[in-house]
Amino acid sequence: MTSTAVRVPAVPLSTVRPVARVGRPTAAHITPNVFAMVMGTGIVGTAAAGLPLQVPGLRTVATVIWLLAAALLVVLLAAFVTHWVRYAENARAYLADRVAVQFTGALPMALLTVGSGTLILGAPVLGTGLAVGVDAVLWVTGTLLGLATSVLVPFAMITRRLRGEGEVTALPAWLMPVVPPMVSATGGALLLPHVPAGELRLTLLLACYGLVGLSLLVGMMTLTLVWSRLLHGGVLPTQAAPTVWISLGMIGQSVTAVNLLGAGAAGVVPAATAAGLHVFGVVFGLLMGGFGALVFVLAVLLTGHAARTGLSFSLTWWSFTFPIGTCVTGATALGAATGSVVIRGLAVVLFVVLAGVWATVATGTVRGVLAGRLFRG
Hints:
Elements: H1 13-16, H2 36-50, H3 58-86, H4 88-95, H5 106-121, H6 123-126, H7 128-159, H8 180-191, H9 199-233, H10 246-264, H11 271-308, H12 321-338, H13 341-370
Helix pairs in contact: 2-3, 2-5, 2-12, 2-13, 3-4, 3-5, 5-7, 5-8, 7-8, 8-9, 8-10, 9-10, 10-11, 10-12, 11-12, 12-13
């Protein structure tokens, strides 16, 4: 089997592959996948804050990382708007590309990740009221954008002749536009205690379960296509290999969302229903966790294969961070639901892995920018 049938499009290559040209910074190459940097950074802060094992200074470090993610979000949003204003032709081009358009899902997930971090870590900095307000705005905005990508990207793939049509293109990136509602469900679970009790809180809880269903069912169908593509089409192009980790992100995020919602249901719905939702979260988490372990090991093996065939650093490496982060939050939530010391210990081990991966990718990104290989024209 070979992977020559899969074409990585021209537009996002300026961000997916190392850029050889050196020049001054430009917004010409600010495509949606750059928001994966915000996702990958923000998840480190929120994962650290929720760990079952807290060491002195960890929350302070988590707060600094959240502030870094928030600052990065502001900078990239400004660059993204500039990109659309000054380089509209480039912007329209990636929306017309079958692969590049998938990464529009990174923007809502970046907003949601920073929003959750604001709620979890921002109160000492901003005050509780402002932290909740900022998170609410980011959650609503991110949720609406995520619902839009979940519907409009598949609609465009069905009805428009996007570049890459007719090729074997069932790639892990196809999950990007449909995962945001799952991230919204997690953020909504965190917001539940801050919403007035009664109908409004119940509506939010039910809406979050609906978001889980939307993302999970479409995501599992997409995973089936991706699995089939890998088995029949062989490995991904070497520089696109890190994107296989995106599959793990949906798994970890679903475990996080369902268990946080199960914990938040107490007092919102009748006791029997809340107990059932709690049990559902535990059973779902254990089953999906087994599947996640398989995907994790497979992703490690495929990444190792790519490393042996010439994988070099690019912004695609940010695909490692957020998915591993969701495994940390998923294990943390499941450990709290079950009381399992083993699962809680797994969350800590996974966080150590996440911290190492994030430090590696962040360092590579900074070096690439300073050396003129990234975001340059």
